[in-house]
Amino acid sequence: MGAQTLLFWLFAAMTISGGLMAVLLPSIQQAVFSLLMSFVGVAAIYALAGADFLAITQIVVYVGGILVLLSFGILLTGRTAMSLGPQEMRNRPLGVAFGILIFGGLLWAITHSSGWAVGGEGQDGGTTAAIGRLLLTRYLVAFEFAAIMLLTALVGAAYLVRRTDA
Amino acid sequence: MTIGLYHFLGLAAALFAIGIVGVVTRRNAIGILIGVELMLNACNINLVAFSRFGGGGMDAQVFAIFVIVLAAAEAAVALAIILQLFDKRSDVDVDHARALRG
Predict the structure, then answer these.
(1) With contacts defined as CB-CB under 8 Å, which chain A residues touch B59?
(2) What is the pLDDT of residue B37?
(3) What was the ipTM of the complex prediction?
(4) For residue B59, what pLDDT is reported?
(5) What is the pLDDT of residue A85?
(6) To probe the interface with A, which of B3, B5, B18, B95 has the most A CB atoms within 10 Å?
(7) Does A114 touch chain B (CB under 8 A)?
(8) How many Å apart are CA B37 and CA B2, to the nearest integer?
(9) Inter-chain touch B18–A23, beta carbons under 8 Å
C-alpha cells in the first residue's frame, strides 16, 4: 500500500466523519466545527488529486469565509438555536434511510456505467497558470459575470439585513 | 490497489448523501445550509476527479472555482435571509416559517 493510498483513505475518513458529525450532532456549534474538519479533508483530497490551486481556494473561501459566516449566523441567532434541544432533528430515521438510498443509487450508477475513465491520468505540477489562462480566455465572460454576481449578492445581502424599523 | 477515479466518485457520492441527510433532517436553517455546503463540496470532488483522470484538462477545475464562488454568494444571501427570519420570528426553525402557507 503506497503513501498515496494511505493518505487518500485518511483524508476520505476525515471528510466523511466530519460530514457525518456536521449532519448528525444535535448542537449546531459542534456541527460547524465538524464542518471545518470535513472542508479541510476535502482540500486535502483536492491536493491529492493534483488540484493545488483549488485546495488553496477551498481553504481560503470555505474555511476562511463560509465557516466564519456560519459562525456569525449562529452567534446572531444563537439563543433559540441552542434551545431547540431534542426537537432539533425531524424524522431522523427516515432521513438517514433516504440518504442511504441516495448513496446506494449513486454507487450503483457509478459502478454500472462504463466509460467514466476516459483519457489518462493527468500530470502532477502547478495548475495555477493554466487555470488563470483559461479564466482570462475561454471563460472570460463567465468570469466577468461571476464578478457581477458577487457584487449583486453583496448588495442584496446588505439590503436584506438592513434595519427596517429605524 | 492504487487510488483511481472510482474512489473519488465513491467519496463524493457518500458526501452528497450525507449532505442530503442534513438537508432533510435539520430544522435549524443554518443546519440546512451546512447540508447544502456538503453537497456542493461533493460535486466539486467529482469535478476535480474528472479533471485528474480525464486526461488532465483544466476546464473542470475552472468549473469547480465557479461552484465555490456561487457557494460563497449563496451562503451570504442565505444567512441574510436567516437573520431577517430571526428578526421577524426570533427563531430559525424552518418548520415555523410558514407565512406563505395557504
Answers:
(1) 134, 138
(2) 94
(3) 0.90
(4) 87
(5) 52
(6) B18
(7) no
(8) 29
(9) yes
Q: How far is CA B22 from CA A9, A17, A101, B70, in A?
A: 23, 14, 14, 20
Per-residue pLDDT at B102 = 67
Mean pLDDT of A89-101: 86
Per the DSSP assignment, residues forming a β-bridge with B93 are B28
Residues of chain B with pLDDT under 50: none
For residues B64 and A146, is the Cβ–Cβ distance under 8 A?
A: no
Q: Is residue A29 pLDDT above 80, yes or no? A: yes
Q: How far apart are CA A130 and CA B59, in angstroms?
A: 9
For A89, which DSSP code? B
Contacts of B55 (CB under 8 A, 6+ apart): A118, A119, A120, A122
Q: For chain B, what is the HEC assignment?
A: CCCCHHHHHHHHHHHHHHHHHHHHHECEHHHHHHHHHHHHHHHHHHHHHHHHHCCCCCHHHHHHHHHHHHHHHHHHHHHHHHHHHHHHHCCCEHHHCCCCCC
- Name the pTM for this structure: 0.90
Residues of A with Cβ-Cβ distance to B34 under 8 angstroms: 22-23, 31-32, 35, 70
Does residue A131 sit in helix, strand or coil? Answer: helix
Q: Regarding predicted confidence, which is higher, A85 or A50? A: A50
